[in-house]
């Protein structure tokens, strides 16, 4: 009888757990690929205190914006670029009242680990010499925020014409990082947070902030779900700020 009672209890517990999982509300968080590791941890922290199944979706900001335009059911959107968020606000996909700046980042030049690089980033001839038969990994300079910032910085330095023919553009910043990690590109321009996560690259130089548009990550609440408001509020909490800071993001 005891064995039977135990089996019944286990069955009921399993059934209740399954019912809970099925009943848990879903929250879809669309975030720029450079936020992957930080958002994964933020999601874990949020789920501990809320009965919700958070589904993160990562891609380049431009790709996520296109998905939202086509009707993707995003509840929260974290952009790596203020202009793309403004684009959505201007087209009424999000209210400006539901947008706030989450954090900031820096732009850095990297090289594969163990391959020493000496470069004065303001000298075009040095870029040309280093990139002879080599490539500079960047995000797409027309659409990917990291690539847009990279082009701005290189133009401000006066070296864009020296490097523009040696680019290895990618669909997001994590792909640019991977090219350098695999030694398929001698240099790469990524966010500081990406460089800090990788054991396969070395930081060559940090681009001065005045060379490009400020790298700010605005976050928007796109739905009226209660849990979306809760997650949006959570992202502004001290706990969330500590998490973002731990990954190298700057929270002001």
Helix-strand makeup class: alpha/beta
Proportion of β residues? 15-25%
CATH class of the largest domain: Alpha Beta
Number of strands: 10
Distance between the termini: 62 Å
Total helical segments: 11
CATH architecture of the largest domain: 3-Layer(aba) Sandwich
Query: What share of residues is helical?
Result: 40-55%
> Which of globular, elongated, flat, extended, rod-shaped describes the shape?
elongated
Let me know the largest β-sheet.
Answer: 5 strands, mixed
Strand order of the largest sheet: 2-1-3-10-4
- The SSE order reads HEHEHEHEEHEHHEHEHEEHH
- How would you name the CATH homologous superfamily of the largest domain? Periplasmic binding protein-like II
Overall residue-averaged pLDDT value: 92
- Computed over alpha carbons, the radius of gyration is 22 Å
Briefly note the CATH topology name of the largest domain.
Answer: D-Maltodextrin-Binding Protein, domain 2
Poorly predicted tracts of residues: 4-22
